[in-house]
Structure formats: structure tokens, C-alpha cells
């Protein structure tokens, strides 16, 4: 499995460089080597607009998949959609340059620095489960739970 975002890379590198990492604050991190998630359907959904170069379609899809707390559409969560639009050029730039990272899930118990992942309570159930399992494996980990806002909109 390749890591595509900073959380998985940070988690994966920490056991090998404990003297170089003072602590980890991770918003909904991924981790290599975790078998409890089937990303087939989300990856296929992203593949179609990505191959077509449909940036707005990707922003709409991303907002719907990852922006439930904001309402789930670019219209109801314009800040979330703007963030998606802003990172898409970098996402396309690294495609083809990704490499497979070492499996880290079974090494989470080796993390010996203060670690605080943040979990959004409106995230997908399998993402929530993964982050709970990660937190349970990291000694002294403090899992922060970010509740849904009553308005359903993200603060700007």
C-alpha cells in the first residue's frame, strides 16, 4: 500500500527515527499495513473524474466523501471544497511518483513519543474504526474526537 498523505508517512517513519520526532499531532491519519479498510469503491469513484481531468467533479466527490461535517457539497461547504480544489494540482503532480512505504500498522507499539490523532465523528465508519485501532496500539496515545458542529458547517 502506498501512502498518499502526510499522516501515514509520519506514522510510518516515527518508529525508525524516534530521536528525530518529538511528538505526533495527526488529523485522521492513515497507516500502511492496515487490512481493515476496503478502499476499492472510493478509489474507483475518484478514478473516473481524475482520468477525465474533471477538477470540479473531484472537488464535489471529495467534499461528499470527506466533507460530511460541512454538508457534503461544494455549495453547502465552500471552505471544504476550496481546500480540495487547492490541493488537487499537487495530488496530480505526485501520481506516478508514489512508492510503496513499509508496513507500519504492526509497529505502532514502537512509537514512544506523545501522539494525538484527531478523529472526526462524521467520518466514514471504517476510517473511525482504523483510527481507534491505531490509537489503541500506540502507548499513551490520546485520541481526540472532533464532534459534529450543530450547524453542519465548518468554521472559517
Arithmetic mean pLDDT: 79
The span between the termini is: 34 Å
Count of discrete alpha- or pi-helical segments spanning 4 or more residues? 5
Shape: globular
Instruction: Give unreliable regions as ranges.
Output: 150-156
Helix content: 40-55%
Instruction: State the order of secondary-structure elements, H for helix, E for strand.
Output: HEHHHEHE
- Could you tell me the radius of gyration in angstroms? 16 Å
The count of strands amounts to 3
The description of the largest β-sheet is: 3 strands, parallel
Q: Quote the beta fraction.
A: 5-15%
Class per helix and strand makeup? mainly alpha
As laid out across the biggest beta sheet, the strand order is 1-2-3
Short structural description:
The protein is mainly alpha-helical. It has helices spanning 6-13, 40-52, 55-66, 78-94, 125-137; strands at residues 24-27, 115-120, 144-146.
Main attributes of the structure:
single chain; mainly alpha; three-stranded parallel sheet; globular; disordered C terminus
Write up what this structure looks like.
The chain has five helices and three strands; from the N terminus they run αβαααβαβ. By secondary structure, the protein is mainly α. A three-stranded parallel sheet has the order 1-2-3, with helices on one face. The longest helix is centred in the middle third of the chain and has 17 residues, at 78-94. The model is unreliable at 150-156 (pLDDT under 50).
